[in-house]
Amino acid sequence: HVQLVESGGGSVQAGESLRLSCTAPGFSANGCGIDWFRQAAGKPRQWIVSTGADGSTVYADSVKGRFTASKDKDKDTVYLEMNSLKPEDTAMYSCQARFGTSCQRAYWGQGTQVTVS
Fold first, then answer.
1. Given this model, what pLDDT does residue 108 score?
2. Which terminus has fewer CB within 10 Å in the chain: N or C?
3. CB-based contacts of 29: which residues, under 8 Å, 6+ apart?
4. How far apart are CA 44 and CA 1, in angstroms?
5. Per-residue pLDDT of the chain (117 residues; tens, 9 = 90+)
């Protein structure tokens, strides 16, 4: 089992920025990717960005150009820099780390709340 640790959520005004982090022990050595999701109240969970073990990223259109994911291999951590935040970005943000030769093992962080007003 891999225990993920997330941090960085909070309450900000529209237009401001936040940086989330997701630490997955062992990710740099054995991980396949880390994905960020968000879920607003009353809505289904939404995928927003995936970061591969090589640091490559793929973004959902809703966040492209505003959010940037980056990988720090020395810390087994992926950061999600969120700029120009909008009220519609308000949600619980969660990360998922994938491991295994077929990336079949997935572990979730505890989630961190982002509120934009």
1. 95
2. N
3. none
4. 26
5. 889 999 999 999 999 999 999 999 988 888 999 999 999 999 999 999 999 988 899 999 999 999 999 998 788 999 999 999 999 999 999 999 999 888 899 999 999 999 999
Question: What distance lies between CA 46 and its chain's CA centroid?
Answer: 11
3-state SS, 53-72, equals CCCCEEECCCCCCCEEEEEE
Strands 112-116 and 10-12 turn out to be parallel
Give which of 109, 108, 115, 117 is closest to 9, Cα–Cα. Answer: 115
- What is the pairing mode between strands 91-99 and 77-82? unpaired
Q: Is 91 exposed, middle or buried (0-12, 13-18, 19+ CB in 10 A)?
A: buried
